[in-house]
Specification:
With 459 residues, this protein is α/β, with parallel strands linked by helices. The chain is built from 20 helices and 8 strands. Strands 1-2-3-4-5-6-7-8 form an 8-stranded parallel barrel, surrounded by 4 helices. Strand 1, helix 3 and strand 2 form a beta-alpha-beta unit. It is globular. The N terminus is likely disordered.
C-alpha cells in the first residue's frame, strides 16, 4: 500500500505539517487523526496475536501515523506500545525507527474509583512514572499528553487531581508535557476551565458520533470552541455500526443482548445506539448515510467520520486499530481501514449533506437531549451504561502493580548484564524507583511480595 497513490495522501492527513510540527514542540498541536489502541488491551476481545499487533503498528507507522491513544488502565497496552517502540529503536535505524521516534503518545490518568476521595501527589507521580517506564520513553522525555478521567464527580476533587497532574509538568525534569481531560461533560468542564490548575487544558476526549450526540446537544463542543480546547472524538463509527457491514442486515443477537458483542467497545456503542431507537431506525440512518456516500463516492464510515470532524471544536478523530486487522500491507482489511481514513480526511460534506444527515438522525439528537450532559449516564454505576465499566484497574502501589514490576525486573535480569546498554540501565533505574515506591507506599501487600520486592531492590 505504501507504493500506491493512496499512501502519500493518507500520510499527509496523519502527519503534522512541518511548521506545525515545529510549533508543537512548544505548544500542543493535535493531529487530524490519532490511532486508538484500546483494542490492544487484554480482555477487550479474544486472544491477542502479538506478532499481528506488531505488524499492524508497523503498517500504520509506515502510513504516517504520528499519534497513538492509550491509557494507564488499558491492560497491557502501554507495555505493548513500549516494547514495540523499543524494538523499532533497536532495529538499526531506517524509516521505521525514525517514524517510531516521532510518534506522540496520548495516555490517561484514571485513578481507581475506590481511591478518588484520598488521591495524593505520590499516587499521581507513581502512575506517571509507571506509564513512562511501560512506554520505554527516552531519558528525560516526558509524557506528551496525559488526560484525566474521574469516575464520580461527587467523590474527591477532580480539580485537585488536575492540579496535581499539572504540577508534574513543571520543574527541571517534568513527567508530563501537556494535560487534558477525558469523559467530562459540559458542566464539569466549565468548572475546571474556571479553576487555576497551573497549566492550560489543551484537549478533551469525548465520545461523538451520529449515534451519540451528547457532546453537541449539551453545549460541550461550543464551550470548547469558546475556550480553545481541542476536542478529540472517539467512537465516530460506533465500533463499526456505522458501516456497510450492517446496512440491510437482519437484527443481530447482540442488539438484544449487547454483552454478547464481540468486543467491549461494541457492547458500549450498541447500548448507546439503542437509546435512539430500534434496529429499523438504525437502518434508516444507514440508508441515508449510504445515499450521501454514493454521491461522494465514499463509504458509510467515511461519511460518519467526516460528519464528526465537521462539528465545532473537533480537532481529531481517534480511529481504532482494526480488530484482527491482519496487519500486513497486503491484507484487505488493513487496506480498507487505511483508505477509509484517507478518504474521510479529504471528504468535505456540503450543507445539504449535513442537513439530510441531521434529518435522518433527529431521533438520535432527541435521545442525546433526553440523556442530558455528556457522560452522565455512564457515571451511574447501577445503570445500563455504567454497569459495564471496570472501575478499579489502575491499582497503583497495590499487589497487581507489584507483580507487574517483579515480572519486568525478572525479565530484565534474564537478559544479562544491564550495564552494557544504556536503555537497560534506564529501565532498571525506573524499575528501582517503582520498587522503592511499593515498599514505601504499598497497600495490602503480603509478606511474600514484600520480601520479593526487597530482594529485587538489592539486585
Amino acid at each position: 500500500l505504501a507504493r500506491t497513490a493512496a499512501a502519500p495522501r493518507l500520510a499527509s492527513h496523519f502527519r503534522l505539517p512541518t511548521t506545525m510540527a515545529a510549533a508543537a514542540e512548544a505548544a500542543w498541536v493535535p493531529p487530524r487523526f490519532v490511532l486508538g489502541c484500546w483494542q490492544l488491551s487484554s480482555g477487550h476481545h479474544g486472544p491477542l496475536d502479538e506478532e499481528e499487533t506488531r505488524l499492524a503498528l508497523e503498517f500504520h507507522l509506515g502510513l504516517g501515523v504520528c499519534a497513538v491513544d492509550c491509557g494507564d488502565i488499558y491492560t497491557g497496552v502501554e507495555q505493548r506500545l513500549g516494547d514495540f517502540f523499543q524494538g523499532c529503536a533497536a532495529s538499526g535505524g531506517g524509516d521505521l525507527a525514525e517514524a517510531a521516534a516521532a510518534v506522540r503518545v496520548h495516555t490517561k490518568l484514571v485513578p481507581d474509583f475506590d481511591r478518588l476521595p484520598d488521591l495524593e501527589a505520590a499516587d499521581v507521580e507513581a502512575t506517571l512514572r509507571r506509564s513512562i517506564r511501560r512506554l520505554r520513553l527516552p531519558r528525560g522525555q516526558p509524557l506528551e499528553l496525559v488526560q484525566l478521567h474521574w469516575w464520580d464527580l461527587s467523590r474527591g476533587s477532580a480539580a485537585d487531581a488536575l492540579r496535581l497532574l499539572a504540577s508534574f509538568g513543571r520543574g527541571p525534569a517534568p513527567l508530563v508535557r501537556h494535560v487534558g481531560l477525558t469523559n467530562f461533560g459540559a458542566v464539569a468542564t466549565r468548572r475546571l476551565l474556571e479553576e487555576d490548575i497551573g497549566a492550560p487544558i489543551v484537549s478533551t476526549q469525548v465520545q461523538l458520533s451520529l449515534l451519540d450526540q451528547r457532546a453537541a446537544t449539551s453545549g460541550l463542543l461550543e464551550l470548547c470552541r469558546e475556550h480553545g480546547v481541542a476536542v478529540l472524538c472517539y467512537g465516530t463509527v460506533a465500533g463499526g455500526l456505522l458501516s456497510e457491514r450492517w446496512l440491510g442486515a437482519a437484527e443481530p443477537p447482540e442488539w438484544g443482548e449487547p454483552v454478547r458483542a464481540e468486543t467491549r467497545s461494541l457492547t458500549k456503542y450498541i447500548l448507546m445506539a439503542r437509546e435512539g431507537g430500534t434496529w429499523e431506525d438504525l437502518q434508516q440512518l444507514l440508508q441515508c448515510l449510504d445515499r450521501v456516500a454514493t454521491r461522494h463516492q465514499a463509504s458509510i464510515s467515511e461519511v460518519a467520520i467526516a460528519w464528526a470532524l465537521a462539528q465545532p471544536a473537533v480537532a481529531s478523530a481517534i480511529v481504532g486499530l482494526p480488530k484482527n486487522s491482519g496487519a500486513g500491507p497486503d491484507t484487505p482489511a488493513a487496506k480498507r481501514a487505511a483508505a477509509s481514513v484517507a478518504a474521510a480526511a479529504g471528504l468535505r460534506l456540503a450543507a445539504a449533506d449535513l442537513e439530510e444527515i441531521g434529518a435522518a438522525a433527529v431521533n438520535r439528537r432527541e435521545a442525546a437531549l433526553r440523556l442530558g450532559d455528556f457522560y452522565e449516564a455512564e457515571r451511574d454505576k447501577e445503570g445500563v451504561h455504567g454497569s459495564i465499566m471496570r472501575y478499579n484497574l489502575n491499582r497503583i502501589c497495590e499487589v497487581e502493580h507489584a507483580r507487574e514490576v517483579l515480572t519486568a525486573a525478572g525479565e530484565l535480569e534474564a537478559q544479562g548484564d544491564a550495564s552494557k546498554e544504556d536503555s537497560r540501565v534506564l529501565h532498571a533505574e525506573r524499575l528501582l524507583w517503582e520498587v522503592e515506591a511499593l515498599l514505601t507506599r504499598g497497600r495490602s501487600l503480603d509478606d511474600t511480595t514484600v520480601e520479593e520486592l526487597r530482594q529485587a531492590q538489592c539486585r
